[in-house]
């Protein structure tokens, strides 16, 4: 399958053993895992790119699972997924930084809640939380506003690049022989006889022996096409500010709120790209496509920011965005197998899905195998992909004299603010899953996500993207 | 004298007398002046062509006060490069300074490799940019078609791309009219200019007849509160600041103009004292920063004045760089210069007695509000040292100039000097 067949024209395959609907982080992880077996697999995504829905607007934390509800599937899979992803990140070059987190208590009620949270962490299998006094809180986060009473540390919470993660899973699924079908929206589901399912898509029909529904915000709709009404997705909008890199020295670890009767607070976190993030808001919406930001969201974030870390607001905001979490009426992931239909749904996967994705994939293999899907591991598999590093804590091409000596394109900066070179843009355009638009290029290289937002390099980056498309 | 091309651990080493960071009008002019005096000067510019912002400002009005002629932006940019080269300066393009490796030493990424530039003096001339939509906290959808004047002019003049057909321009100051001209050239009609100010700014080059030709409706005392459109811009929501009423203006392009911020990242990375008003590095009348041997010029220290004024900073700083290299001009304490509202910044922010006059014998200020009559008052330690009504108005979106002679009565051993409007 070539890059064109991925996105345009008739589908390059008529039947697969397993179709995975949804090319977000979960679907891509599941497709990758399935493609490690003697199976034909298709990853079916409605949008023009993998990771272009909820997965791209994640808070980008690799969770220990310390605060999950003990005993839930989510708790188990987050803990397992954290181990799996940390190891996979090492193998593929997905940027991860173990910054650690501190929950900060601002009221007596929050302070009183800390021992309970530490005990809950132990129940979730995480034993390294520690309660600290106000003095230690300020030693760890000097820029914090006055008034903190104490805190709880979570030394293993980490930040990760959600874009590279999804892309790595999808790239490896592809190299293992899976079909990655973009711009392919599932519009209807029919029984195909022989137990097969026929997916009607905008690009034609696809028969599948098994279907895994990892459609995120659309997972309840797809579930409905299979005749189920098990949960409803209520998109929960979360707006976020990303501050200029000049703010980064203020925030060396993730600063989390303590859940309390005051409602959910917001977090302040370093990002893997060297920025600082503030948010998210939480607002239930009806429209599953509305990722617009709002005045009241901005006001809320500014107010929270002033209370948490006033100095942060002296820095420029380089990006604001909104993500929609696939929240349901249930407290846990919605994983249901229908062996008769040869259908599995992975629904209600909230922001923890980035961490748990690989464990969800492992869980999926177990469920499908138990239900009769034959899983013979492929005798040989290609090496995992080596992903370009777009993290700030690791050497990037512009810093590498060795790389530039071999190829001057890595010494030619195109996007100045983010220090993205000609070589990296060229590589992204020539990669197995090339970007479809400027946003896709941004997620692969960081081009245009910096403080100038295109003032200097916007025209040049667009030119290169168009040149890449026309090839 | 210069150690071009020597190499250690894969990193090339350059040892010029002076490294100039930024090849726009101020940096190139400084380079020319310094090279003409016999110094080895290396200009580092991250773009593929030096010349700075005028390269893509394809209208006339450049070169008036520095070269005493009128020319277009691109012609002016080319001439400044030629003059710097002619004087013996080296101009290195595609050379991006990524950080400091010493007091006056820089890490540079170039296609030829990583370069360490170990200079005896450094002139920061990194300019300014317009605040993008994100920094202005304008919510709504995030479609393409929303940009600054810089990107617009790059697209149209350097890349010959089309933009939309109906534009809304945010801002009504000098650069906003420049954006309107560029849009017209690209076949895009400006359907509205919005400004929170009570008056639109005008400019000699686009004076009243110019505006009549452009036929741009200006909505004063308004602001854009939301951008609408999933895959492309469909409209903006505009609020009337007086009444709070809102209306939707259909358009396919939104240009955010003005609202300048210096490109100050290298200055901050060096830990230089910063000016909280302009957000550029704090400089004195000799354009010296808080680090000996590091100077700052142009729109980095006054965001923004016209290109010729920036260029004249380059001429001004040359003498002080030479003095520094000759071991003259020891640092004495400076007197902070402050500006009261409606001024948002004053440049220079420090007056060092004995260091001579500031560039062009002018103090530069930026105002958030207009004043038709400019009664300027200078005070120090509660004592008024000068008061004059200047024959030009105070206008937001353009620099307000005060003769530095108004400071001549200041006590060199006194406290901060304040400039205010009476």
Automatic annotation (TrEMBL), chain A:
Residues 414-463 form the BFD-like [2Fe-2S]-binding domain. Pfam families: DAO, Fer2_BFD. Residues 17-364 form the FAD dependent oxidoreductase domain. Coiled coil: none annotated. It comes from the Bacteria. This is NAD(P)/FAD-dependent oxidoreductase. It comes from Microtetraspora glauca.
């Amino acid at each position: 399958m070539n890059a064109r067949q991925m996105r345009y024209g008739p589908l390059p395959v008529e039947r697969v053993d397993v179709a995975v609907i949804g090319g977000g982080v979960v679907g891509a992880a599941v497709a990758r895992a399935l493609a490690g077996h003697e199976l034909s697999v298709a990853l079916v995504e409605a949008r023009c790119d993998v990771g272009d829905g909820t997965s791209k607007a994640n808070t980008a934390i690799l969770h220990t699972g310390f605060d999950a509800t003990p005993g839930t599937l989510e708790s188990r899979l987050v803990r397992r997924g954290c181990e799996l992803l940390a190891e996979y990140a090492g193998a593929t070059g997905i940027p991860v930084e173990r910054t650690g987190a501190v929950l900060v208590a601002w009221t007596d009620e929050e302070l009183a809640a800390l021992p309970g949270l530490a005990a809950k962490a132990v129940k979730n299998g995480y034993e390294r939380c520690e309660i600290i006094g106000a003095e230690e809180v300020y030693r760890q986060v000097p820029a914090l506003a006055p008034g903190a009473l104490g805190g709880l540390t979570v030394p293993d919470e980490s930040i990760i690049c959600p874009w590279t993660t999804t892309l790595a899973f999808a790239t490896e699924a592809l190299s293992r022989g899976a079909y990655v079908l973009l711009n392919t929206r599932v519009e209807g589901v029919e029984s195909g006889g022989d137990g097969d399912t026929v997916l009607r898509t905008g690009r034609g029909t696809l028969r599948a022996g098994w279907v895994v529904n990892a459609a995120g915000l659309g997972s309840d709709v797809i579930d409905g096409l299979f005749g189920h009404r098990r949960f409803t997705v209520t998109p929960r909008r979360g707006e976020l500010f990303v501050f200029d890199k000049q703010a980064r020295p203020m925030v060396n670890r993730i600063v989390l709120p303590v859940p309390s009767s005051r409602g959910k607070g917001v977090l302040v976190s370093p990002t893997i790209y060297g920025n600082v993030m503030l948010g998210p808001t939480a607002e239930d919406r009806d429209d599953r496509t509305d990722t617009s930001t709002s005045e009241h969201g901005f006001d809320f974030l500014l107010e929270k920011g002033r209370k948490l870390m006033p100095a942060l607001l002296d820095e420029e905001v380089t990006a604001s965005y909104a993500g929609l979490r696939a929240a349901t009426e249930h407290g846990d992931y919605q994983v249901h197998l229908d062996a008769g239909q040869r259908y599995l749904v992975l629904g209600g996967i909230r922001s923890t899905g980035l961490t748990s994705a690989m464990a969800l994939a492992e869980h999926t293999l177990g469920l499908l195998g138990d239900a009769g899907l034959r899983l013979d591991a492929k005798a040989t598999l290609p090496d995992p992909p080596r992903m370009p590093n777009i993290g700030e804590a690791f050497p990037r091409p512009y810093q590498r004299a060795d790389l530039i000596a071999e190829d001057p394109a890595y010494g030619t900066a195109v996007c100045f603010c983010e220090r993205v070179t000609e070589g990296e843009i060229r590589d992204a355009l020539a990669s197995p899953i090339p970007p479809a638009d400027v946003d896709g290029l941004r997620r692969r290289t960081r081009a245009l996500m910096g403080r100038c937002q295109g003032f200097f390099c916007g025209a040049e980056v667009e030119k290169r993207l168009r040149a890449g498309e026309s090839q | 004298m210069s150690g071009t091309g020597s190499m250690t651990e894969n990193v090339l080493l350059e040892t010029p007398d002076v490294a100039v960071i930024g090849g726009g009008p101020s940096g190139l002019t400084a380079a020319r002046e310094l090279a003409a005096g016999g110094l080895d000067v290396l200009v580092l510019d991250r773009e593929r062509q030096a010349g700075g912002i005028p390269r893509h400002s394809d209208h006339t009005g450049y070169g008036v006060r520095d070269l005493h002629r009128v020319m277009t932006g691109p012609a002016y940019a080319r001439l400044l490069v030629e003059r710097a080269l002619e004087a013996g300066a080296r101009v290195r393009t595609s050379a991006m300074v990524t950080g400091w490796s010493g007091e006056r030493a820089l890490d540079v990424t170039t296609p030829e490799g990583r370069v360490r530039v170990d200079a005896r003096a450094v002139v920061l001339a990194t300019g300014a940019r317009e605040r993008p939509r994100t920094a202005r906290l304008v919510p709504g959808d995030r479609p393409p078609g929303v940009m600054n004047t810089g990107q617009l002019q790059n697209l149209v003049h350097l890349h010959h791309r089309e933009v939309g057909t109906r534009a809304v321009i945010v801002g009504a100051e000098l650069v906003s009219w420049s954006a309107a001209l560029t849009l017209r050239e690209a076949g895009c009609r400006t359907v509205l200019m919005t400004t929170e100010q009570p008056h639109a700014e005008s400019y000699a080059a686009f004076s009243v007849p110019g505006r009549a030709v452009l036929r741009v409706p200006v909505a004063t005392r308004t602001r854009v509160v939301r951008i609408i459109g999933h895959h492309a811009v469909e409209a903006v929501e505009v609020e009337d600041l007086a009444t709070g009423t809102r209306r939707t203006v259909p358009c396919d392009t939104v240009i955010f103009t003005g609202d300048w911020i210096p490109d100050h990242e290298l200055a901050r990375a060096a830990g230089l004292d910063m000016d909280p008003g302009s957000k550029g590095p704090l400089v004195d009348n000799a354009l010296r920063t808080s680090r000996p041997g590091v100077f700052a010029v142009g729109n980095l220290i006054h965001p923004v004045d016209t290109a010729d004024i920036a260029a004249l900073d380059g001429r001004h700083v040359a003498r002080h760089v030479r003095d520094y290299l000759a071991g003259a001009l020891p640092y004495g304490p400076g007197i902070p210069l402050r500006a009261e509202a409606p001024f948002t910044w004053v440049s220079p922010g420090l007056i060092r007695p004995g260091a001579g006059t500031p560039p062009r014998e002018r103090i530069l200020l930026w105002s958030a509000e207009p004043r038709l009559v400019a009664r300027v008052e200078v005070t120090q330690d509660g004592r008024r040292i000068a008061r004059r009504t200047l024959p030009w108005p105070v206008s937001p979106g353009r620099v307000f100039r005060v003769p530095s002679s108004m400071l001549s009565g200041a006590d060199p051993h006194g406290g901060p000097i304040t400039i205010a409007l009476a």
